[in-house]
Amino acid sequence: MGKQIDKIKVSAGEDLLAFIPHILGYWPERSIVCIGMNGKRLRATLRMDLPPEDMNDVAGFAAVAASQLASDREADGCLIAIFGVDDWYSPRDLPQQGLYEDLREAFEKFRLPVQDAWYVGPNFWRSLECANERCCPWPGKDNASIRESFVNAEFIYRGSLVRESPQEQIQTLITVSDESFARSVAVAGEQFRDTLQNSGSGARQLGVTLGAWEMALYQWPKRPDASMAAFLLASLGAVAVRDAVIVAMATGPNSAMAGAAATGTLRPDDAPLQAPVNWYGGNQAEGWDAAIEDVSDEAVMRAAADYGNILVGEVCGGHGSRPLGPDWNRLAKAEQLLQFLAGATGSADKAPVLCLLGWIEWCRGRGTWAGNYFHFCDEIQPGYRLAQLLDRLLSVGYVAACAKDPATAWHGQRDDDPETTEQAA
C-alpha cells in the first residue's frame, strides 16, 4: 500500500464517491470502502463485503478493517463509504448504524480518525456526518450526481471505465471462446497428462516444464500453439509442479528450481522426458530449461526459506536488506497467459489455472477478485486444496504480506492509482 494520488482533485462528496468505482474498476455493492488519508491526500483503498446481518462480532469485523488500512504507516486518517442495500430515508433509521459506530471506534484506536463518511443506497447518497436538512435534505442526493461529477468525467476522459462486477468479468475471461482450438488442446494433452501428473517432479522434467512456462512468458503476447497450451495445462496437474510454477512466476525459474531442490521436491526422473512439440528445434535448442547448476549453496538455502512463504504471499527475499516483492511485470504477463489458458479448456485442467489467477489477485491485495477465482475453481474441481486454503485466509481477513508493505505492494495498472486492497468477507 501507499501510493498517493494527487493528479485529480477530489473535494465534494460526489467527487470522492465517483473516485471509488474507478479505482476498484466496478461499482461496489453491499460493500464498505475505506480510504486512508495523509493530510488531504488519498492513500490506500480497502473494500470489504458488508458483514452478514447475523454476524455476532461486528466489532471484530471493524477491527480487521482498521488493522488492514493501518498497515499503511503514512496514513493519519480515513474516509468511509458504506454501499448498502436500502436507501436511508429517516435520521433515526440508518442502515448499518451499529457497523458504522464500530468502524469509527476501531479506526480511532488505530489512530486513523474518520474525516468524513457517506452512505450510498440504490438511488440516493448522503453524508453520515451531517444531519442538517438544509444542506443534506432527506433522503439525500440522487446517485446521478456521482456520475455527473467532475472526477467521473476526468477519469472517463483519461480512459478509465467502470465495468461490470468482478464475477461477471472473470466469467467472460475464462469462458472458452474458440471451441476448435480447445478441442485441439484436449487432443494434444492426452500425450502429456498422465506422465506429467505422475512424474512431473523429476529433476530433468521439472527443468523442462519451468523452461516451457518461461518460454511462453517470454514470447507473450504471442499465444502458445495447441501443443504448448496442452503441455502447460497438463503440467499443473501435479501439486509440486504447480507450486514450483507459482514460485517461478513470482521470482524466476532458476530460483524455483533451487527452492524445489532444497525442499526435497525434486525426484529422480523415472519416465521418458515430456516436452511440447518442436520444443528442441530452431535456435533455442535446450536454452529454455531451468537449471540449478549455477546457483550457489547459499542461494539454494535462501530459496528453501522463501519457497513456502511465496505460496502464502510473503514474497520478500530481502534478507536483511530492502524487502523485495514479486516481480509484478512477470505476474502481469503470467496473468494474461493464464487467462488465455483458462479460455483454452473446458475440462478439469482449468481448476489449477483459476487457482493461480486467484493467487496473483490475492498477492495484489484484491480479495474480491481472488475470491471469485477460487469460487470458480471450486465449481470445476470441488475441494481444490490450495484454493480452499487461500479462500479461508481471505475469510478471516488475512491479507498477503506483500500487499501490506508499501515497498512490495502492487500499485495498480495506472500511474495515478493508489494501492487498492479488497477483502471478500
Which terms summarize this structure?
7-stranded mixed beta sheet, elongated, Cytidine Deaminase, domain 2, 18 helices, DUF4192, 425 residues, disordered N terminus, 7 strands, alpha/beta, single chain
Q: What is the terminal-to-terminal distance?
A: 20 Å
* Biggest sheet architecture: 7 strands, mixed
Structural class: alpha/beta
Unreliable parts: 1-6, 281-287, 318-322, 414-419
Widest sheet, order of strands: 6-5-4-3-1-2-7
Radius of gyration: 24 Å
Element string (H = helix, E = strand): HEEHEHEEEHHHHHHHHHHHHHHHE
Please report the total strand number as a whole number: 7
Number of helices: 18
Report strand %: 5-15%
> How many structural domains?
2
- The geometry reads as elongated
Pfam families: DUF4192
Protein name: DUF4192 domain-containing protein
What can you see in these coordinates?
This is DUF4192 domain-containing protein. It comes from Arthrobacter stackebrandtii. The chain is α/β, with parallel strands linked by helices. It has 18 helices and seven strands. Strands 6-5-4-3-1-2-7 form a seven-stranded mixed β-sheet, sandwiched between helices. The radius of gyration is 24 Å and the shape is elongated. The chain starts with 12 loop residues before the first helix and ends with a strand.
Q: What is this structure, in a nutshell?
A:
This protein has 425 residues and is an alpha/beta fold.
